[in-house]
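haha ok so turns out i had the wrong file open the whole time. this is the CORRECT one, sorry everyone. sequence first:
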Amino acid sequence: MTTTEHSYKTAPQLSDTLKRYSSIATFIGLVFLLLLVSGIFLEGGGLTGPGMNHFLRAYLVGMWLWFGAGAGCLVILMTQYLTGGAWGVVIRRPLEAGAKTLYVTCFLFLPLLIFREQIYWWTTPAGLADKVIQAKSLYLNVPFLWIRWAIYTAFLCFFTMRLTSWSKEEDETKSTAVSAKLETLSAPGVLIFFILMTFCAVDYLMTLEPYWYSTVYGFMIVIGWVLTALSIVIATLTMLEKAEPMDHALTRKHYHDLGKLLFAMVMMWTYLNFSQLIITWSGNLPSEIIWYIKRWNGGWEVVALILLFGHFVLPFCMLLSQTAKRSSKFIFAVAVYIIAVHAIDVYSLVEPNFTNVKDPHFYLSWMDLVAPLGFGGLWFAMYFRNLPGMPLLPLGAPDLVKALNHGRDH
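then structure:
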């Protein structure tokens, strides 16, 4: 029996539940963000002291994690429009809800730009006078930094707006012409996304260590975003599976397919990190090895081992089993775990840059713990508010019937 006989309207009770989740997330986010801001004054020095320095570092950790979640949702959404497939139809609405958070998170870069000299050494007078920075001045200059932020924001917000508005039009008209427009826009969108977000990763993470560089860094960052976004939408599906319309739309095969994709992204993240390591190791250049010296000494090696086993070995082993990937409870636990361990990855991308390469010391501020929770609350408040804005299934998608019957013959 096919599922086309069922109704696919979102149950009013589910909409109310999602709004309640949004309210709870708002409260949690505000509490932790207020704690984060209070750290500026609790640690002393006001807007120019050590409290502000620690705040900006923690701010970058938290903001980057959840900005990346929204950006990851956008690139998966565009990829799904290009590739099709039943796996993507059931997660399209969560992806759109996540991408819409970019309307806010893109502007979270402003404090980093305004107080740039307290976190990005190269923007200080001493940094700009440095011979190495002067050699890179065509790119590393403050006016161009602002211009690039405007370009990133315009691109992300425009593509999110176009894709979500056309998706709504597709639902209303059931027109294949609209579906074709979504696919046509997504083709250059994916390419431009990777190019611009590589520059974005350079601007806000790589330049924390301005002498260091890596050619795979941007891709490594984006794959981390995709892992976070995919984990969020998988966890969302498991939360919705007992509510109409998802109760008769989802099958074990959907979870299996998404689990395989999550497994592939874990492998891709590992491959890119290993590629960067092996190239740096074989080159053994002073300007390149400083990145690893800081992360393999002074206590930071514990974080490196946590990422090796926690971000690769454990998810790899957990996602090998076909039976396990078909279990909604199991895949939910894996998804939540990956979000948590990726937060550690983001922390490791930021904080070690501020230790002395000649005498590295592990550093963890309470603000590094508070910031991801605060920004996470803000992100999920927007996410759960966006989610019931449209039917939870894209009723005009050409692959809808195929997606609804996916795996029902097994």
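The longest helix spans residues 50-83.
again sry for the mixup
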